[in-house]
Structures are given as C-alpha cells and as structure tokens.
Amino acid sequence: MNDAEHIPVLAETLAEQINLPQDGVMVDATVGQGGHSFLFGQSLGPAGIIIGIDVDKAAIQKARARLQKLVCKVILIHSNFSQIIQQVHKQGVDKVDFILADLGVSSAQLADEQMGLSFQTDMPLDMRIDKRLKTTAADIINKTGEKSLADLIYRFGQDKASRRIARFIVRHRQRQPIVTTGQLATIVCEALASSSKKRKSKIHPATRTFQALRIAVNNELENLEKLLDSAPQLLKKEGHIAIISFHSLEDRIVKTNFKQNENQGIYKIITKKPIVPTSQEIAKNPRARSAKLRIAQKQ
Q1: How far apart are the first and last CA of the chain?
Q2: Which of 214, 241, 249, 284 maximizes the CB count within 10 A of its CB?
Q3: What is the mean pLDDT of the chain?
Q4: CATH number for the domain that contains residue 256
Q5: Same domain for 202 and 252?
Q6: Domain region containing 34
Q7: Of 218, 248, 274, which residue constitutes the final position of a domain?
Q8: For 238-267, what is each residue's pLDDT tens digit?
Q9: Is 100 in the same domain as 90?
Q10: How many domains does the chain have?
C-alpha cells in the first residue's frame, strides 16, 4: 500500500490556519481515508462533530476504521458534496464551523483497477469515482462526435492538441472499441508523437486527456460550483471554508467564488494568494506538488 494514501495534503498548514472549538462541527466534504478529519478530530471534544462525505464507498470504509478512536461524534455519508446542505441538515445540524474539500484523487483510487483512472497500468476505461453514475469514460470515448470530443479535451484538459487527439481516437475506434486505459494512453501518445519533441512538459502525454475525461465523467466542476454556492448557508459567523485544488480550472472556480462572496460582504478571504506545499512536503508526498489551498471566513 502506498504511503502517500495516508498523508493528507497541506495538513499542518491547515491546522495552523484553522482553530476549531472543542464543540465545533466540521464537514469534511471529501473525507477520503480520513486523514484531514483525524487531524482536526483530535482537537474536538465529545460535543464536537465531524460529518464526512465521500462518493467513494471504499474510502468511507477506510475512514470509518481510521476515525473510530476519536472522542467526537463521527458521521460518514456516501454522497456527492454537491448535496452538502441536504446531507448536513438530515443529521439535524443547522450550521457548521468548518467546511473542507480536498479535490485531489488519492493514490488508492489511482491504483484501484475498478476505478480505471490510471494510464500507468492497463485498466478498464471507467473513471467513475461514484459507481452510481451511469456514463463511463469508455462511453464518452466511443460515442462522442469528434468535434465535441476535441472540445471536451480542450475545455477540461486544456490540451492545445485536442483536435489531433480526438481525430486519432475516432480513427482507432472505427477499427475497434477503446475499452482500456492502456489503449487510450497509447493512442494519445501516438497522436502527440510528432509534437512530443517540442513539448517541454514533464507530464505524461495522456495526463490532460485523462484529466478531461475524469472531470466530465464525474461532473467535477459543476459539483464544485454547487458546493461553493451552498457553503455560505451552512457556515456559522466566523466559520471557515478551505478548498485544496489540484489544477487551474478548479482553482479559478474557487478564487472567483471567494472573491464574489467577499465583494458582497459574505466572506473575508484569508489567503490573498493560494498556499502551496513546501519542498519538504512535496519530497514526502509527491501527490501534493500541484496543490493550492484557499481559505475564506464567513462574516
């Protein structure tokens, strides 16, 4: 098992920024394996509450095992954080002190063959983090028209070679369906072979296409907007919201939302610039390298 699974990103930085009262209520909107919740839960007393939400059922089981020794009340919910208001109110909780979301994909999820997220290993091309979703990445790759596919890869993956990649995908799927991550990664590498020498990027050529598909399959940006829109209704006065994002599309949405709320007198932005991991943290946990943390406080 990869150690990186157990290292919550920017945890110490968060702990320095956020002080929860002993009877505080925290919503960990992406509870994962419970790393961040465990850290904050240690400062909560018996009257404190952690509500952990995650779309990944397997992660919730791991979080349950990890958080069981905490003295505070722990409630774990299999749901998308776009439903945060309904899920929190269902527990009889009206307002909360702290909302946290870590938008990264965990090492455990990348290694899980059922998820089909990784181009490092050949897996079924699925990418549904919540298995209740109907559309897989294979459905999108094999059924979407070439122009729409190029638009999707450009919009969500920010890959300038999106038209060429889409053209290669369509050409290959006419011969046989594309059903594994390995097949897709090979096709993207082929599409980019002629321009690979010009690319100075250290990332794998398929990274952006895989990111685009994962965002599309899981409606990630739309769900993030719903979470951010819901947060002011849930936060107590002087309560905090902290979002850890991993690419510029997410970070832009968070930055814009916080700024709009600050302009309306709803939030005070605590992080004028996003907080990024130190080189020491990145050495310990390479997954943290692209993380950006933004924090706002309800006025």
Answers
A1: 43
A2: 241
A3: 92
A4: 3.40.50.150
A5: no
A6: 3-108+220-298
A7: 218
A8: 999 999 999 999 999 999 999 999 999 999
A9: yes
A10: 2
Taking only the tens place, the pLDDT of each residue in 166-180 is: 999 999 999 999 999
Torsion sign across C-alpha atoms 53, 19, 253, 62: negative
CATH code assigned at 135 = 1.10.150.170
pLDDT digits (tens, 9 = 90+) for 41-80: 999 999 999 999 999 999 999 999 999 999 999 999 999 9
User: Beta strands 49-54 and 73-78: pairing type?
Assistant: parallel
Examine the domain organization and report whether 169 and 24 are in the same domain.
no
The residue among 114 and 170 whose pLDDT is bigger is 170
The residue among 152, 184, 218 that closes a domain is: 218
Calculate what percentage of the chain has a pLDDT beyond 70.
Answer: 95
Same domain, 127 and 186: yes
